[in-house]
Amino acid sequence: MENRIEKIKKQLHSQSYKLTPQREATVRVLLEHEEDHLSAEDVYLLVKEKSPEIGLATVYRTLELLSELKVVDKINFGDGVSRYDLRKEGAEHFHHHLVCVECGSVKEIEEDLLGHVEKTVESQWEFQVKDHRLTFHGICKNCQSEHD
Amino acid sequence: MENRIEKIKKQLHSQSYKLTPQREATVRVLLEHEEDHLSAEDVYLLVKEKSPEIGLATVYRTLELLSELKVVDKINFGDGVSRYDLRKEGAEHFHHHLVCVECGSVKEIEEDLLGHVEKTVESQWEFQVKDHRLTFHGICKNCQSEHD
DNA sequence: GTGTCAAATTATAATGATTTTAATTTATTT
DNA sequence: AAATAAATTAAAATCATTATAATTTGACAC
After folding, report:
1. B16-56: per-residue pLDDT in tens?
2. Which residues bind Zn(2+) per the record (chains A, B) (predicted)?
3. CATH number attached to the domain at A92-148
4. In this complex, do A109 and B118 lie within 8 Å of one another by their Cβ atoms?
């Protein structure tokens, strides 16, 4: 964990940003909830537990900054809220999501499923792909078995 | 065009909704701007030109209804606004988008690029796919050539 | 160490998209 | 035509997010 904080610190420094206590607290919350797809409000409340003086606006600004630096991915599942996911180490791309329409659970897929599709897009539409976002909506394993 | 309105009318009736004048006006705007990825506000302004008495809330309600009936797809490119695209006739799936990070243009891809990927997801993660959304972010043909 | 400057943060207010409410209108059924 | 339900309007409310102004922090010069 300290290791990853160090890396993020370096990423910030490389663009002449600082890892302030508030930013560090925010990053720590993200690291501790890597699977959780937290909203800005969620992050705010969790950070507040350890650092009660932090403001919501600061959390928003920090998440925005981390998003620009590609430390986190800002995602949107269609409810009105943005969610923030830590990008996995070494991942060049956004990871994919399986959203269950029954129970609302969200599962992540790390594998890059789109290498081939991306090549098609690049050649067929002459579009230079930088990133992609892919979400499947459907019924998760759990909810399938409940229908028996 | 009248043809497609008729179809949508039937879809509404099949769920015991009516195609009111306001709803029809809204659908017509969507048909006339099929490539445009209009926001609710955009639709509202366009509908207002022909039917000045319509309210914004009605447009929202209509778009929400059409979205539930899968007549339109509600999409979200990460700016704070929802956009509404008519689903192509016979399309079972959401279509894909190429969003240019330089000029903001959005191009649609009708082809189903994900048949194979979907099968992988279904078998490997035991997730029953109902729909998907795929967006590529990158640089469009136009913006590429401007960089010469 | 003290003063100065820029960056960051706080608390609050403002914004903008969307939703809700209550009152009114329209369409449908009896 | 009266009664009922569905849809619409206009206005207010809500919620996420962003901007503002004042304050604090930290780095560097003296």
Report:
1. 999 999 999 999 999 999 889 999 999 999 999 999 999 99
2. 100, 103, 140, 143
3. 3.30.1490.190
4. no
